[in-house]
Structures are given as C-alpha cells and as structure tokens.
Amino acid sequence: MTSPDFAGNSDNYCYRHPDRQSFVLCQRCLRTVCPECQTQGAVGVICPECMGEQQKSQTAAQRKAERRWTRPRAATVADSRPLVTYGIIGLTLLVYLTQLIPGLAVQELLAFNSLFVMPAWGVAPFQPWRLFTVLLVHSGFFHVGLNMLAVWMIGRSLEPLLGRWRFLALYLMGGLGGSVGVALIAPGIWVVGASGAVFGLLGALLVIGRHIGANIRGIVLILGINLVIGFVPGFQVAWQAHIGGLAVGALVGLVYARTRSVRRRALQLWLLAAITVGLFALLLVPPLIYG
C-alpha cells in the first residue's frame, strides 16, 4: 500500500507501465523505467525510446561493430530476477552445510570477534575478513533459516528497485556496520550470523520507502519487534549488530534516495566510499575507550 502522495506522483512509476513501481531512471531522458523496459547501457540503463533513437543515429560502421562485439539486443534487456539475493542465500546455505562437517571448524575460522581487527591490543592475529565472513556462518538451522527468509522477502522487492550492484553494496555495508557496532559496544565477544546485513536492508527499505511516499508502518513494526527481542532475557541475540546494521543501512538508503538521478551517480559512489572508510575508522575507537 502507498500514500495518496506517492500514488499520485507518476515519477514513482514506469512511464510505459504506470502500474509498476520503480526506482531506476533512464540515463538519457531521466524517465522512470521498470526492469522490463530497461536496457543496460555503458552507464546506467536506457529506456526503449532512447535506445531506438541511439540506434538510428549510429553509422553503419558503429552498427557493425556493435553486432560484432556486443551481446544480442534481446540479451541486453535487464533481468528483473533478484539474482544477487539468490546468490547470497545459496552461498550462505552452502557455508552452513560445511559447518556440519566434523573437523572443519568453519565457524571458528569465519566468526567475528573484534579482537581480530584491533592489532593495538595484540591479543589475536589481524584478520579483517572476519568483518564480512561473519555473515556466512550461523549458530543453527533456525538461525540461518530465519535470516535467509528475511533476505529473500526483502531482496525480491529491494534488489529490482535498486539494481544488483547497489543491492550487494547495501548488504555488505550493512553487515560491516553490524560488525563495527559489536566492536564499539561489546568488544571481545563472539558473534555469528547475517543479522547486521538483514537490518541494513530493513533500514534502507525504511528510508527509501519514506522518501518515495510508501506506507512504511509495517516495516517500522517489524523493526520494533526485532529490536525489542534483542533485549529480552534468554534470547541470545547480538543486538549490537542489529543497531549497527540498521544505522548504516538507513544511511546508505538515504544516499540512494538523494542521488537517484544519473548526474549524481559519481556523488553516490563517493558517498558510499566515504561511509565505508568511516566505518573502518571507527574500529580505532574501542582501544581508546576500553584501553
């Protein structure tokens, strides 16, 4: 469901299919296009009309070179399937299955503990990849099942809206935010799971939905329930990762919402890079606070 302001704004819907919501613009005419109407260009996507005009303006040599060196035209139409979402789920489940093999110690090798990213303490070897590999290991079947169910439910809507690379960047940055949150609030504890990344997706969905005028009450309710569960005695939940992932996801979602147009694409990349560098810089804080 959407608000009246959102439903009345045609810019939030594909100009060729007014019933289809989209968050992607044609790089030439800046009109909103749904996945079915998108053709991948050198930078961004192009709508069918602009693609036709581009083809008409090509010389015979350009058309010959395009036929020789590019994919067939039918294959350039954007695929709306959430392939990154499927890839994340498949890889995570594969790693979980390896955890069940005796003697591999997969969880011990990939789980996150802030001691491995703080050389200043000199307690453990420097292993920064644990900031991200923690997303792949889980404590049990229900843990991995619930997290991957959430990724599937959010990803099948959010990935086509953002595009595959932006969705992947959001997922990884949310996971990084969760790891940094644990390092800042509870250094030295072991955590596993993709909860930070999942909350990153929820945070971005909340901000983007609010920006385009969608009804976000259901998202707010889900966030509230999950955050409260983290503080209930008896639940072994890394609420620090939830808060970190949620904050970073909301920030990334704000960047995506405010740099939607093609002319702001470079600014979007710079802002994402700045957020990533800032998160790594925050890892320098715990040794200063906790000694």
Q: Superfamily at the CATH H level of the largest domain?
A: Rhomboid-like
Mean pLDDT: 83
* Number of helical elements: 13
The rounded Rg comes to 21 Å
CATH fold title of the largest domain: Rhomboid-like fold
Unreliable residue runs: 68-77
**What fraction of residues sit in β-strands?**
under 5%
Number of domains: 2
Helix content: 55-70%
Quickly give the CATH architecture of the largest domain.
Up-down Bundle
Give a quick summary of the entry.
With 291 residues, the chain is an all-alpha fold.
Describe the secondary structure blueprint for this structure.
Layout lengths: L3 H4 L31 E2 L4 E2 L1 H9 L3 H10 L13 H17 L6 H5 L1 E2 L16 H4 L7 H22 L1 H22 L4 E2 L3 H18 L4 H13 L9 H20 L6 H18 L2 H6 L1
Antiparallel strand pairs: 1-2, 3-4
Report on this model:
The protein has 2 domains: 4-76, no CATH class; 83-290, Up-down Bundle (Rhomboid-like fold). The longest helix is centred in the middle third of the chain and has 22 residues, at 141-162. A hairpin with a 4-residue loop joins strand 1 and strand 2 (45-46). The strands form 2 sheets. A two-stranded antiparallel sheet has the order 1-2. It has a two-stranded antiparallel sheet with strand order 3-4. The protein has helices at 4-7, 48-56, 60-69, 83-99, 106-110, 130-133, 141-162, 164-185, 195-212, 217-229, 239-258, 265-282, 285-290, and strands spanning 39-40, 45-46, 112-113, 190-191. Helices cover 58% and strands 3% of the residues. The protein starts with a helix and ends with a helix. The relative contact order is 0.11. It is mainly α and 291 residues long.
